[in-house]
Amino acid sequence: MRTKLWAVLVAALTFGCASGGIPKDAKTTIVSFTDLDCSSCGEDMARALISKDGVYKTAFDARRAELTVVADPGVDVFGLATSSKPKDEEWSLVVGAGKGNYLPWTKPKEGLDVKQIAMDGEDVVDLAPHLAAGKVTIVDFSAKWCEPCRTLDEKVLALVEQSPDLGYRKLDIGDWETPLAKRYLTGVKELPYVVVFDGAGRKVGTVTGLDMAGLSATIEKARQAK
């Protein structure tokens, strides 16, 4: 179920107090998460803090790993956030915008046919020039805040390491409103989203979500394509 929650995120998950408007003297505080591995921790904290006295609005920006909290001036927002952090989590919190980040993904071993062709949702007009010539190419649309995407990436890297007939092309969508997402992901409801091409560059099939069985079957179909 959480996988589908990640999929419907746009830029921020926002919660507001149902008891009325926000006072004019309310203060906005931004707390950044460092070394996150997925967005769910920020989402959980946004939900937790909106229930606290004096907190009027919370919003977690998955792309930037930032939590915005609108609260009474007397509320210690950073203290609330720190006390809401699960003890077994290794990520950290810091006050201020522009300081959030996610853990780096697994680095491909040298020599593997793996290329990152989009980093933060920038548009890629045509995938064809980026495909691995003469190989089955796995094209993965993902996001740094998506934990299933991170898992699939690790598994695909292992496949490519074992199979020299595979190429792997990675595109980080940024969020659902970027040019890249709007070009390729219309109608797609879940990440990761994988497109598999055969050795001649023909699209063989797509796989949505963390479905390794489906991906393996699609790869085999591409290998057998004439």
Polypeptide structure, described:
The chain contains 6 helices and 10 strands; from the N terminus they run αββαββαβββαβαββα. 27% of the residues lie in helices and 27% in strands. It has helices at 2-7, 40-50, 77-84, 147-162, 179-184, 212-224; strands at 12-16, 27-34, 55-61, 66-71, 92-95, 114-118, 136-142, 166-172, 193-197, 203-208. A 5-stranded antiparallel β-sheet has the order 1-3-4-2-5, with helices on one face. Strands 6-8-7-9-10 form a 5-stranded mixed β-sheet, covered by helices on one side. It has 226 residues and is an alpha+beta fold. The protein folds into 2 domains: 2-95, Alpha-Beta Plaits, CATH 3.30.70.100; 114-224, Glutaredoxin (3-Layer(aba) Sandwich). β9 and β10 form a beta hairpin. Mean pLDDT is 91; it is low at 1-11.
In short:
With 226 residues, the chain is α+β, with helices and mostly antiparallel strands.
Features:
single chain, 226 residues, alpha+beta, Alpha-Beta Plaits, Glutaredoxin, 2 domains, five-stranded antiparallel β-sheet, five-stranded mixed β-sheet, 10 strands, elongated, disordered N terminus
Number of domains: 2
User: How many helix segments?
Assistant: 6
**What top-tier CATH class of the largest domain fits best?**
Alpha Beta
Element order: H for helix, E for strand: HEEHEEHEEEHEHEEH
**Ends apart, CA distance between termini:** 38 Å
Count of extended strands: 10
Give me the CATH fold name of the largest domain.
Glutaredoxin
| Silhouette | elongated
CATH architecture of the largest domain: 3-Layer(aba) Sandwich
Helix content: 25-40%
Average residue-wise pLDDT = 91
Major beta sheet summary: 5 strands, antiparallel
Low-confidence stretches: 1-11
Structure class: alpha+beta
* CATH homologous superfamily identity of the largest domain: Glutaredoxin
Q: What's the Cα radius of gyration?
A: 20 Å
Kindly estimate the percentage of residues that lie in beta strands according to DSSP: 25-35%
Strand order of the largest sheet: 1-3-4-2-5
